[in-house]
Structures are given as structure tokens and as C-alpha cells.
Amino acid sequence: MAVQDYIRKRFFPHLWCQGCGHGIVLNSLIRAIEELGIRKNDLVMVSGIGCSSRITGYVDVHTLHTLHGRALAFATGVKMSRPELRVIVPMGDGDALAIGGNHFIHSARRNIDMTALVMNNQIYGMTGGQFSPLSGPGVKATTAPFGNIDHGFDVVKLATAAGASFVARTTTYHVHQMISILKEAISHKGFSVVEIMSQCPTYFGRKNKLGGAVDMLDYFKSHTTAKGSDAHKKDPLMIERGIFVKEDRPEYCSDYDMLVKELQLKGDA
Ligand code: SF4
Asked: How many structural domains compose the chain?
């Protein structure tokens, strides 16, 4: 299977703005899937609402474009009924951690086998640039013209505390790292979370005077560092990239299957 076989060419050109990071994520995700040799029929992608969620429209696998914040709930239903399928859930920061925040922590707690992508551009792009739970203090947004006063979640810490068995962070600048992390996350048995710092030049970049897409990519290059590096020890404001959690833990569908089999043996089911 070649990379282009995973794309629904009839839906191109895509609707993302010029320079949007989501195209880089789509490209990397398809390359990761192609390198893993996953058959299209074995893969389901489930998304909610937002610019990032449009990814499901462009991939030629089984796709569900569902409700805002509810992608993980739909994905849980898919996985419970067909546990042999691989499930990937691309989400934006608002979709995953505001409207979908409860689904996010409970999916992590259950350690259900799927890959949750949090494409973090620190803003609601599709609806006009409102601040999100990942914007952080001082950020300007349509709903925070004088600067946001909310503190942001740290996706890695939140996912780890909630029980995700694979947690990683990368950026749209670090494409090779992104492909490699996505391959590990998709192959992991359990709930895997990959935060991808992604640029929204149209709203986040413009409102915060960060320049164009290239400047924003340059920011990811200069303000992030490999996990555990000296740069982070010297300057804790440097954001770490890499894999933070990777553990074998009981998986939800397997546990449920085992329970049903035990009950069947006893004649209770
Ligand atoms: S509004 Fe922002 S996130 Fe949405 S497509 Fe445009 S650049 Fe990308």
C-alpha cells in the first residue's frame, strides 16, 4: 500500500488555511500508518468537531465524524464492539480537553486500546479564535482581547495522572520524531496520548503577533527540547518532547473479554 492510497483524493484541496499545522499532522499520520503496514479495512478514525477533526474526511479508512467533544465516547463504542480494529482519534485542544475533557480522563483511566491525538494550537480555530484550556495565561484570543487569565492544562501531566499507559509530546516542526512517536503510539496496547503542538497562523499567530507559519515552526524548534536534556534543566520553560510514559497495563477490552469468558465457563453468561 502506498501513502496516497490512504487519502481520499476527491476531497482535496483541503479546507485548512495556508501554513496550518494540521496538514503536517495528516501527512505524518498517514506515513506512520503506511510504515506500520496497517490495512485500511483494519483502521477506524473517529473525530469530533474543529479544524483538526477534519482529518477524518481526508483519510480513506473507516471514518466517523461525530459530535464536538464526543469522539472518544464514539470511539469507545467502536472499540468495545470490534476490539480487533485499530482506533485513532484526532482531536483539537478544545475538542479533547474542554468539551471532551471528561471523556478524555475516563478513557485514560480505563486504558482502552486506542490512540488519542491532541493537536494543540492553543485556540479554537474553526469557530473564530476563542481561548481553549491549553491557551495559557497572557494569550490573546477573540474571547480574551486583553489577555487570558486561565491557566492551561499540561496534556502530558493530565494524561499521565488520569492513567494513560502511553504519553508523548512532539511538534509539527519535528516531523521525523512525530512519525516515530505515532508509530509507537499506534502499536501500543492501551490508551495512548500524543500531544502535537501545531500552528494556527490565522488566529493564534495573528492575535498574538507571532508572525507567519514559518515563524511559528521556528518557535517550536527554539522553545522545545528533547526530554531530559540539559536545555530543560537549565531553563524549565523549555517544553520537553518525547515519550514520557510507556507501560504495559491491563487493557479494558481484554479485561472485559476475560470476564465474559469466565462467566461463560461458570454458566453465568
Ligand atoms: S483557523 Fe487555524 S487551525 Fe483552523 S485551518 Fe486555519 S490555521 Fe488551521
From this structure: 1
Instruction: For residue 240, give the CATH number of its domain.
Output: 3.40.50.970
Q: Residue 269 above 80 pLDDT?
A: no
The predicted pLDDT at position 267 comes to 85
Instruction: Give whole-number Cα distances, 192 to 98, 203, 256, in Å.
Output: 19, 29, 19
Q: How confident is the model at residue 136 (pLDDT cuts 50, 70, 90)?
A: very high
- Give the domain range for residue 180: 3-266
Instruction: Encode pLDDT of 215-243 as tens digits.
Output: 999 999 999 999 999 888 888 889 999 99
80 Cα–ligand 1 center, Å: 33
User: What is the C-alpha end-to-end distance of the chain, expressed in Å?
Assistant: 42
pLDDT tens digits for range 149-168: 999 999 999 999 999 999 99
Ligand 1 touching residue 202 (CB < 6 A)? yes
Ligand 1 mean position, distance from CA 17 (Å): 5
Give pLDDT, residue 236. 84
How buried is residue 234: exposed, middle or buried, by Cβ count under 10 Å (0-12/13-18/19+)? exposed
Nearest to 259 by CA among 42, 80, 73: 80
Q: Is 16 in the pocket of ligand 1 (CB under 6 A)?
A: yes
Q: Which atom of ligand 1 is nearest to the CA of 201?
A: 7
Give the closest residue (by CA) to ligand 1 atom 6: 17
For ligand 1, atom 2, name the residue with the nearest CA. Answer: 200
- For residue 5, the model assigns a pLDDT of 94
Q: How far apart are CA 92 and CA 133, in angstroms?
A: 11
Nearest alpha carbon, ligand 1 atom 1: 125
Q: Is the CB of 121 under 6 A from ligand 1?
A: yes
